[in-house]
């Protein structure tokens, strides 16, 4: 029902990582960014299978044509958007998406999805900037709320979302089935 949110399992505080890597620049991605985004998404799915509703294998098997079309649409409308954190060297190191709920009765709601920051960019403020950009865009679109789901036990992500003003409104038991057992997810909302 809610898009899955991917985020890293642990996040260092602003530390040596931040000293080595300056704060990335966050912007809305365009179709030219699709290859870099797809590569980063596959990396996230492979490295953190417990944080996504999609699997690495399913993503590979489905091909990229459909995703490319949806990605192209998201670059130019108020129904969905994909944002990227871009390092000083131009490499995409983080991503987050916003999708508006379709239909007249639910157009006031959006969902944050696909949140991921590569290990080399953790602790730089990229995650906070991505969430801030999603929320700023949601406000521009006139949304009243943004929802997300986060795997129980992903303390770093949960804290990030709480700092951004998200609150828990529910918990879905066995939201994900993984080879080593089920994972529950917290359902969170940010009122705008």
What's this model, at a glance?
The protein is α+β, with helices and mostly antiparallel strands and 192 residues long. The protein has six helices and seven strands; from the N terminus they run αβαααβββαβαββ.
Tally of separate domains: 1
Order of helices and strands: HEHHHEEEHEHEE
Fraction of helical residues = 25-40%
Percent in strands: 25-35%
The gyration radius over C-alpha positions equals 16 Å
Q: Cα distance, first to last residue?
A: 21 Å
- So how many helices? 6
Superfamily at the CATH H level?
Gcn5-related N-acetyltransferase (GNAT)
Low-pLDDT stretches are 1-19
Mean pLDDT: 85
Name of the top-level CATH class: Alpha Beta
Tell me about the biggest sheet? 7 strands, mixed
Describe the model.
It is a single chain. Strand 2 (80-86) and strand 3 (92-100) form a beta hairpin. This protein has helices at 16-20, 34-47, 56-62, 65-74, 126-140, 155-163, and strands at 25-28, 80-86, 92-100, 109-117, 145-151, 167-178, 181-191. The chain contains six helices and seven strands, in the order αβαααβββαβαββ. The chain is globular. Strands 1-2-3-4-5-7-6 form a seven-stranded mixed β-sheet, sandwiched between helices. The chain has a single domain (16-191), classed as 3-Layer(aba) Sandwich (Aminopeptidase). With 192 residues, it is an alpha+beta fold. 31% of the residues lie in helices and 31% in strands. The longest helix has 15 residues, at 126-140. The model is unreliable at 1-19 (pLDDT under 50). The two termini are 21 Å apart.
């Amino acid at each position: 029902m809610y898009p899955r949110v991917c985020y890293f399992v642990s996040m260092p505080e602003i530390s040596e990582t931040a000293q080595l890597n300056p704060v990335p620049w966050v912007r809305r991605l365009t179709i030219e960014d699709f290859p870099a985004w797809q590569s980063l998404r596959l990396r996230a799915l492979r490295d953190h299978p417990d944080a996504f509703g999609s699997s690495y294998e399913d993503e590979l098997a489905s091909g990229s044509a459909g995703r490319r079309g949806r990605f192209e649409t998201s670059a130019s409308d108020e129904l969905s958007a994909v944002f990227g954190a871009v390092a000083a060297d131009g490499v995409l190191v983080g991503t987050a998406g916003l999708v508006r709920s379709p239909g007249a009765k639910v157009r006031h709601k959006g969902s944050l999805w696909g949140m991921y920051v590569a290990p080399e960019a953790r602790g730089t403020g990229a995650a906070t900037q991505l969430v801030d950009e999603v929320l700023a865009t949601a406000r521009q679109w006139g949304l009243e709320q943004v929802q997300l789901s986060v795997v129980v036990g992903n303390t770093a992500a949960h804290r990030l979302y709480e700092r951004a003003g998200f609150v828990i409104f529910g918990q879905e038991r066995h939201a994900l089935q993984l080879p080593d057992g089920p994972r529950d997810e917290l359902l969170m909302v940010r009122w705008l």
